[in-house]
Every structure is written in C-alpha cells, then in structure tokens.
Description:
Helices cover 65% and strands 3% of the residues. It is mainly α. Strands 1-2 form a two-stranded antiparallel sheet.
Amino acid sequence: MRLFYIALFLSIMFTGCSSKTLHEPTEAIVSQSVGTDAEDDELDEFADEMEVKEIYDPFSGYNRAMTNFNDGAYEYVFKPVANGYKALFHVEIRESVSNFFNNLYFPMRLANNLLQGKFRNASEETGRFVVNSTVGVLGLFDPAIKHFNLQAHEEDFGQTLGFYGVGSGPHIVLPLLGPSNLRDLVSLYPDALLSPIDYTERSYWTLTDTWPEYLGAKSLEKVNYISLDMDRYEKMRKDAVDLYPYIRDVYEQYRDKQIEE
C-alpha cells in the first residue's frame, strides 16, 4: 500500500494549490476523465435512447431483492460516506485517485484488447500507461489524452467472451457490485488474475496482498467513484418507474453495445 499513499500524497500536493480550499464541498464534476468516466457519459446517452428488449431473467425475484439491498446500501452507507469524503477532498484530488486506480488496471485492458485482435487499441493503451505512469505521476493525471490524444480502450474478459460469440446468459445482480450476468460473472475471475489489487501474495507485484489492504483499497476506490458519480445514479433513480428492470435493461443493452464495438 505504500505506493498508493505516496501517490495520494503527491495528488494532494499537486492539486492543493487550486483556487478552492481542500475542504470546500463542491458539486463540480469534470465530464470526462480516464476511460471509465467517458464510458459513463456514453451510458447516459444510451439510457436515454434505450430500446425495449426482452432480457432472460429467470432469477428476477432474487435480482429484485438484491437490487433493493444494493440501493439501500447506497442510500444509508455509501452515500453518506461518499458525501463526507466529497466534503474533505477537492474534486481534482478525487479525480486523481480515480485516474490512479484506472491506470492500475492496464494489464486487464491490454490483455483483452490483444485477445480480441485489437492491436492498435492495445498499442494506444500501452502508450497511455507509459505516459501516465511517468509524466502523469504514477497515473494520477492523464496527459496521455490531453497532450498525446491517446484514447482509452476499456475492455474486460466479459467483452472478450462476447466478442467470440458467448451469450450473456441469465441476468444476475451481485451484492454491492450491482447488475451482471452469467458471462460477466464468470469473467470476474480471469480479470482478477490481472488485477494488481488482490488479497493473496503473488509471484508478481501487487498493490495489496492481505485482506485488510485489499478491502481498504477497494472501499476507497468505490467511495471515490460514488463521490464523482453520485448525480448520475440519483438521476437514474429519479427517472426509473421501476428501478430494477430499468437498471437491468440499461446494463444488458449497454454491454451488447460494447461488445458490438
């Protein structure tokens, strides 16, 4: 975890000279950061234009209950914590934390771009990692897109399986993680093998290697993400007549769109 604390300290040092004070609450959220934020903006547009499509959902009773559980966890646990976190840390620091985590997942994106034969995308991802890990100070900043126009190419093993024709299977809502399906659930394991955030010691470098370190890093990543993404989820809750089928349909159709691309 030492590398992360060094990175967070550098983030505070580099962004602390902003015209807003460190502890000032702010609602400003930059519309696009590293790949995940760009995908979220695309998801907003997709949700507005979504077509009605029948989803294979044999576990609908469980899925609805789990969606309600996750929504309650968001409302009574994650949202208050994220609001407190948001009040403590300036938006630029939180974006740097998001950039840091996103940069760490480069091995997963690289492997899945290569597995799909997207060699140009894999090359751009490699360039992004090198630039952002050096000039971008351990991935805290994103000069790759700002100065070199190196685009992010988010790919995971679920998309790789879909690329080769594997169907999504039944829809499944995961505790705290949210909507998924059988294909994407199975894909969590191979992607996890390429993640530098783990709870076991491996033969290669990882940011964490114990359960407390792992839970600390993942909790920070989730709370930081929610602090930057809160308005989007609140809008989704407001727009949905029935939250569960709305989130399910958005997820499944957006995943299909990602695979088609």
